[in-house]
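Subject line: Sequence and fold of a protein, written as structure tokens
Enclosed: The protein record, placed directly beneath this head.
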Amino acid sequence: MRDERRETRDERRKTRDERRETRNERIIAALFSIFLISLFCGCASTTPTTEATKQAPEISVAKDSVVLNNASEPQNPAKYQDIQYPEFKYIVPRPETYRVVISDSITGYIVEDKSLPLASLSVMFREYTVPKSAEEIATKEILSGMFKNGGSKVMSAQAIDDSLEFISAGIGGGVGTRSSHFSVNSLSRDFYSTANMARDIFTKPAFDSARLEIQKANFVTAYERRFDTPAAVLGALKAKVNYQSSPRLWDANAEEYKKVSVADLQKFAPGKFTPNRIVFSFAGDLPRDSVIAFLTDYFKNWNVEPAKTLDTAETTILLNKPGIYGVDREVTQANIALNQPFIKRPHPDYYKAVVASFILGGGSFSSRLMEQVRSNNGLAYSIYSTVGNSYNDTALTTIALQTKIESAKQALDLIKQEIEKLAAEGPTEAELALAKKTLIESLPSMFSTAEETAGTFADNEFVGKKMDHFDEYVREINAVTAEDVKAMTAKYFDYSKMTISVVAPKAVLESLGNVTIIPLDSLDMRP
């Protein structure tokens, strides 16, 4: 949904995606540097083979595991069902281990990583940017990219691009509704200079006029092609039928993008990236003490005048009008989404609903919807359910799928049946156990790299999660019962209370029953 894409968490996720896009380039540069140093110094060496090295000692991997030795090869089980796995034991990293306090308003997380000579910094600023008109919407959206792409008063836009390309570094950032953010990624040897370049970009923006024209053309093109795909139409339809219109959801149009000027950016930019509240994350091959000293000085010299008033971003208001809504589109695959109002976190129902959603449709091929709609009836390649996760607004539960247009009604009927069955009978013991096991054992994926570890803890603190959040997560998931799953399914996946959005030909829409057809040209949210 468009409002969700504009939310703080999605903006931070986009920042991390941008960091990952340049990570491979930096890894290649780092490995190439190491290779040249090794080649220049003649450091390559070989280990001579001796009788001692030929005789490998016995190695016990773990209790009850295969013992490796030079006498015999490990025996594979006859059937995959006989494979024995060790008990899952994982201790989540403690945020206190990595937390750093620069000042009362500036905190963050530093995770050293010596595996490669790389460094990354992500900084989030708590501030509100709520446009008052469609013209301000256009200005705000273009402003996000113009900080980096428009150059700074210290270095031109072209010089910044050339410098970053030469050292294989990246700088990104933008302005959101509830926060602003920027990120730096580079080889560790170039980190301090790249971070200083970023400070100039976001505290002394220049807004190059030629670059502005390019940005405006890109936004105009994106606007004109916004409904090119059925998925994009479905996203706009979901927003239209689930939310009341508000400044946070408004869309600018092509004419408003074309009118944005350098003067508009200069007028709108003050008060952005202000050090009222900052949470940062750093990961890389630099000493912790050196990074702390650098960031202390770095933010001390963060010279941005704070906004005269600290606005707030109103919460989005749900329409809560169940029914079937459609957009007439000549497609071969019906794009469908079912939504129902959920909760705003923290809330006691959240973890119970997570488990219920996993069993219903979130557990991929182990889920009931996937089994019935795809495996047993062949109506969809993918179908899933989710529960929204927001600390700022009331979220939605979602069931989504694509299916042949002629099978849309049958797919919806099967969804309704599976919801009612789970709400009435509850899950089996095996389903409940698998859901808990999978959800808990997914935790390591959030800490697979130093960058993700630091970023996860920073994100949690930024939205207000407790330091023992992951301990609570495990406790709450383990405490969910079969009765909880029944109750959550009935409460938050009630088919009669769902807003059903469908993109399909008109004849298919009419076959679904009482459908409200919404013209394509009325999907935009406007003041």
